[in-house]
């Protein structure tokens, strides 16, 4: 029998019906864990929808459930700046740490204010930031370095637990964790073994690797799930005052949220954390601790954040998993400041889902204190579940063949004499030409928080040094295409990409340049504090210890380190090379007195601007008295439109909002 032919109106009606039914069953299965139909029935509806959308392409939609099958492969992930910096959480490892946290909160809030906390699971997955415009999924980013993430939208659309279209047509940006349930992870590894493939080490690695597949069809085949736990930005009109309101709204618009409990007593919170240490194995997903957050959002604003973490939240880390193994050797690694760090080479052992084959021993004093010898049986753990460390030596099983370790008197890399300051526990190589120090300095210079030179990793740096194409990081900007293309396993395209990355790095801000120089004791935050006071490299070079130590949080030790850095002719030569290459050696002139030409005006930004990041444009508007909101409303005065604008453009037209492209925005800035 011939298939019944639908006209366009009938086809659209059936497509709409199938989409609505599929969204409903996805919600029942992935959010409520209560499926109402068999998988085969779901597949039958999905196949029918795909068939109709292929036959009537004019009705295709990016938020259709059919988008979950995965699109075309991509060449690389686009880097996108977050709308606001993604901070980490400070850690608590015991009840006393939690009490200290609660005391700090109480101390910084008014005595008569009532407040409480929400306790949640700390999911052991991969953090995602997801943005919806008018209820439709527009963008999904990894956390990245907290400032810039990778655009993984195509892969995220394959995850059925993440709605492509919300139950409300609102603008919202939220955060959650993508993970693989334990039972589905076991099935996944069984299938890989049957296919002759290597099994994944643990669910977190499998989830993270799946999200970063360049082919979305691969991600679509992985059993990924998602739990939402935070709202970053929300359109005007949605009234939420507490974190509890946030979690309830997330559930209302179609997300599954994890376990949570509201508490006001820190003693009760300590009990809850201790209970979940024991109950962790009852869950079908991995957790590595608990998160305690102040419930009231207004009070969070009052407490604020440090440069690294909010003051209103803390992560309670579960006790690290410990294992025993043997120390096969102790080797020395050399850092960019010349510090010699002993590292224990271990008999490989699996700890908390990953194989550990080395552990830091920090310094000679630490080795002596723990009495670690080559050949010892030792107890190891991951410190904060990240860095492996030796906890203690199992001395009862010593045979007498164990060897005591002696710090070398000469640098293993260059043979120069090793020096230990009486006031420090660290041995250092003082040779300015030490090749190991040079390598680490260049790695630091190219790192993400410094000059962020894509493609310039340790292996490429090793090749450049071996070929004697560079003698310091200032030489990077004199590299030529022919030289790079001639290096082993590099080629024309890689050489071209590296040169482009080097050219792009010249745009980095002055504070990042100062951090990249690798001045001892000067981290990224300190670099920002310094450049806020000294607006050019010449001013900084001329500064004295008293000038620098007067800066809040700097102090004499850091000040002396900066002065010593610029007293070195070798360092000045490198700085000169950077300046001649066009690296940014000063703060851009912003004009201390900026006229508030946008006072009382509301702006919305949409799309990608060529001349500004989203945060830069926001800062320019706010410096001039304006306010930037995330959603278009009748109160919006101007919408600034970049490339690939979202639904905000149509909303602006509907609300008769003035619309400016980037050129118009620049003209507005000039003309006032």
Give the CATH superfamily of the largest domain. Answer: DNA ligase/mRNA capping enzyme
Summed over residues and divided by their number, the pLDDT gives a mean of: 86
CATH topology of the largest domain: D-amino Acid Aminotransferase, Chain A, domain 1
How would you classify the helix and strand content by structural class? Answer: alpha+beta
Largest sheet: 7 strands, antiparallel
Overall spatial form: globular
Short description:
The chain has 6 domains: 62 residues, Helix Hairpins (Orthogonal Bundle), CATH 1.10.287; 227 residues, D-amino Acid Aminotransferase, Chain A, domain 1 (2-Layer Sandwich), CATH 3.30.470.30; 86 residues, Nucleic acid-binding proteins (OB fold (Dihydrolipoamide Acetyltransferase, E2P)); 71 residues, Orthogonal Bundle (DNA polymerase, domain 1), CATH 1.10.150.20; 72 residues, DNA polymerase, domain 1 (Orthogonal Bundle), CATH 1.10.150; 70 residues, BRCT domain (Rossmann fold, 3-Layer(aba) Sandwich).
Walkthrough of the structure:
37% of the residues lie in helices and 21% in strands. The chain is an alpha+beta fold. It has 6 domains: 8-69, Helix Hairpins; 91-317, D-amino Acid Aminotransferase, Chain A, domain 1 (2-Layer Sandwich), CATH 3.30.470; 322-407, OB fold (Dihydrolipoamide Acetyltransferase, E2P) (Beta Barrel), CATH 2.40.50.140; 435-505, 5' to 3' exonuclease, C-terminal subdomain (DNA polymerase, domain 1); 510-581, Orthogonal Bundle (DNA polymerase, domain 1); 602-671, Rossmann fold. Helix 23 (648-654) links the parallel strand 23 (638-641) and strand 24.
């Amino acid at each position: 029998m011939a298939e019944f032919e639908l006209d366009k109106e009938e086809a659209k009606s059936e497509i709409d019906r199938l989409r609505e039914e599929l969204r409903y069953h996805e919600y029942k299965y992935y959010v409520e864990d209560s499926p109402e139909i068999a998988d085969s029935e779901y597949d039958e509806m999905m196949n029918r929808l795909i068939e109709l959308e292929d036959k009537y392409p004019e009705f295709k939609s990016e938020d259709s459930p059919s988008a979950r099958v995965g699109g075309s492969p991509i060449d690389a992930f686009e880097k996108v700046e977050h709308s606001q910096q993604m901070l980490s959480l400070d850690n608590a490892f015991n009840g006393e740490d939690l009490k200290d946290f609660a005391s700090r909160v109480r101390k910084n809030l008014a005595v008569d204010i009532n407040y409480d906390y929400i306790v949640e699971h700390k999911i052991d997955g991969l953090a995602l930031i997801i943005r919806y415009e008018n209820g439709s999924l527009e963008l999904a980013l990894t956390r990245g370095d907290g400032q810039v993430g990778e655009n993984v939208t195509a892969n995220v659309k394959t995850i059925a637990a993440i709605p492509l279209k919300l139950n409300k047509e609102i603008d919202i940006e939220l955060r959650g964790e993508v993970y693989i349930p334990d039972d589905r992870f076991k099935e996944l590894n069984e299938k890989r073994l049957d296919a002759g493939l290597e099994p994944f080490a643990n669910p977190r690695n499998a989830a993270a690797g799946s999200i970063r597949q360049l082919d979305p069809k691969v991600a679509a085949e992985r059993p990924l799930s998602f739990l939402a736990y935070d709202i970053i930005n929300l359109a005007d009109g949605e009234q939420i005052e507490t974190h509890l309101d946030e979690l309830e709204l997330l559930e209302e618009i179609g997300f599954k949220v994890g376990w949570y409990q509201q508490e006001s007593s820190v003693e009760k919170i300590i009990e809850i954390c201790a209970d979940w240490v024991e109950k962790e194995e009852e869950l079908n997903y991995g957790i590595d601790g608990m998160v305690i957050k102040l419930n009231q959002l207004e009070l969070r604003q009052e407490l604020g954040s440090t440069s690294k973490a909010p003051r209103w939240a803390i992560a309670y880390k579960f006790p690290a998993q410990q294992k025993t193994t043997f120390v096969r050797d102790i080797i020395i690694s050399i850092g960019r400041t010349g510090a010699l760090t002993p590292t224990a080479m271990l008999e490989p052992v699996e700890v908390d889902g990953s194989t550990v084959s080395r552990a830091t021993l920090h310094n000679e004093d630490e080795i002596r204190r723990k009495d670690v010898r080559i050949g010892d049986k030792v107890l190891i753990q991951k410190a904060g579940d990240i860095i492996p460390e030796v906890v203690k030596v199992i001395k009862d099983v010593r045979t007498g063949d164990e060897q005591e370790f002696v710090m070398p008197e000469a640098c293993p890399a260059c043979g120069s004499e090793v020096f230990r300051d009486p006031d420090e526990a660290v041995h250092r190589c003082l040779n300015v030409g030490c090749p190991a120090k040079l390598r680490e300095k260049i790695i630091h210079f190219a790192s993400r928080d410094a000059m962020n030179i894509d493609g310039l990793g340790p292996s490429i740096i090793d090749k450049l040094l071996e070929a004697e194409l560079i003698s310091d990081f200032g030489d990077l900007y004199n590299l030529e295409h022919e030289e790079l293309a001639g290096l082993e396993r590099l080629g024309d395209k890689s050489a071209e990409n590296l040169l482009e990355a080097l050219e792009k790095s010249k745009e980095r801000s002055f504070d990042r340049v100062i951090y990249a120089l690798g001045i001892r004791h000067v981290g990224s935050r300190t670099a920002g504090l310094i450049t806020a006071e000294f607006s050019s490299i010449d001013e900084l070079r001329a500064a004295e210890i008293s000038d620098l130590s007067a800066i809040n949080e700097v102090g004499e030790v850091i000040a002396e380190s900066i002065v010593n850095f610029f007293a070195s002719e070798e360092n000045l030569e490198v700085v000169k090379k950077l300046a001649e290459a066009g690296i940014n050696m000063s703060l851009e002139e912003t004009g201390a007195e900026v006229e508030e030409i946008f006072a009382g005006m509301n702006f919305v930004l949409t799309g990608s601007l060529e001349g500004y990041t989203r945060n830069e444009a926001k800062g320019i508007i706010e410096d001039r008295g304006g306010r930037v909101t995330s959603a278009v409303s009748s109160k919006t005065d101007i919408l600034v439109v970049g490339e690939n604008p979202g639904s905000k453009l149509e909303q602006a037209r509907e609300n008769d909002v003035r619309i400016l492209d980037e050129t118009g925005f620049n003209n507005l800035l000039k003309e006032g």
